[in-house]
Amino acid sequence: MIDWISALLLLFAIFFFVGGTVGLLRFPDVYCRLHALTKADNIGLGFVVLALLLQATSWDWALKLLIVWVFVMAASATNAYLIARAAIRKDIPPWKLPEQA
User: Fold this and answer.
1) What does DSSP assign to residue 58?
2) pTM for the full model?
3) Are the CB atoms for 69 and 48 separated by under 8 Å?
4) Distance CA 93, CA 44 (A)
């Protein structure tokens, strides 16, 4: 039963990873793309970690998985901040809806 739950969690992770990739390809500006990719990847990785936690053989492996997840989330937030700051410094404007007549 644990294997089936892990497989289901991995399918959820794939859904979020694909959603983030589609957002990266389809959204109109760097800020929207950055938001979609960062959120989807963090949630997708969360599902992967949950699936692996169910398969962990000891508490130390589970703790290591959680620590890796926390470090990846911190790195993701830092990278998103740096990319957004670089875009602002280069005067890349946020996308706006076209004016409706």
Assistant:
1) S
2) 0.81
3) no
4) 29
Q: State yes or no: pLDDT of 95 exceeds 90.
A: no
Q: Determine the Cα–Cα distance for residues 92 and 3; give it in Å rounded to an integer.
A: 47
Residue 38 half-sphere exposure toward CB, CA atoms < 13 A: 18
Residue 80 and residue 72: Cα distance in Å, rounded? 12
List pLDDT tens digits, range 50-89.
999 999 889 999 999 999 999 999 999 999 999 999 999 9
Distance between CA atoms of residues 41 and 18, nearest Å: 9
**Per-residue confidence (pLDDT) for residue 69, from 0 to 100:** 93
What does the DSSP 8-state code read for residue 17? H
For 28-35, the CB contacts below 8 A with 24+ separation are 28/95, 29/92, 29/93, 29/94, 29/95, 30/83, 30/84, 30/87, 30/92, 31/84, 31/87, 31/94, 31/95, 32/95, 34/80, 34/83, 34/84, 35/80
